Amino acid sequence: MRYIIAIFASLSLIACSQYKDCGTEQNPNLSIGFFDQEEGEYILNDVTIRALDTNYTDSILVDDQDISFFEVSPNPHLDSSSFVITVDTLVDTLTIIHSNTKGSPSIECEFTMSFDIKEIKHSNNIIQSSEINNPIVEELNNTNDDSEEAIYNLHLFF
User: Fold this and answer.
1) Prediction pTM value
2) Which of 33, 49, 140, 142 suits a disulfide with 69, CB 3.0-4.6 Å?
3) How many Å apart are CA 139 and CA 111, to the nearest integer?
């Protein structure tokens, strides 16, 4: 019996090691849609979006583009994720408060993360209001293809 357990454990490790990302976290994307209060989905022109980290350094996610939504993975190491949104010369700060849950390894041996959005804060410079549309951020909860309507986690109204 001891040998059977040892063989099974060895085969599990061999099967798992075939995947190059074995043991890494897989973070789902948070989907944020832009809307006009009266007209629905809204395309913003000349948008730059930066993610802020705890050292107040930033990384550019979107650089001077015309967009109606963006996707980004929340910070799995903190309970909030912050962004600076610039539209032309106007600037707003967006902070998303969330809880993080690390799931068990999938078949491919990857750890999965999910996030639960608790609150949205913004500086009200260009964002008029916001709402949580779908608070659970998981791997397969967003649809952004042509066959179905997009399901955004957050709606930002401009």
Assistant:
1) 0.75
2) 33
3) 12
Q: Which tens digit of pLDDT belongs to each residue from 55-74?
A: 656 689 999 999 999 999 89
Whether residue 5 lies inside any domain: the answer is no
Domain assignment of residue 85, given as a range: 23-157
Cα–Cα distance list, 87 to 126, 145, 154 (Å): 8, 25, 18
CB 98 within 8 A of CB 90: no
What is d(CA 133, CA 152) in angstroms, rounded to the nearest whole number? Answer: 7
The structural domain count of the chain equals: 1
pLDDT digits (tens, 9 = 90+) for 82-99: 999 999 999 999 999 999
Residue 106 lies in a domain: yes
SS3 at position 34:
strand
What tokens were used for 2? Answer: 């001891």
Domain for residue 17, yes or no? no
Q: State the DSSP string of 50-73.
A: EEE-TTS-EEEEEEEEEESEEEE-
Collapsing DSSP to helix, strand or coil, 12 comes out as helix
Least confident of 11-15, 57-61, 146-150: 11-15
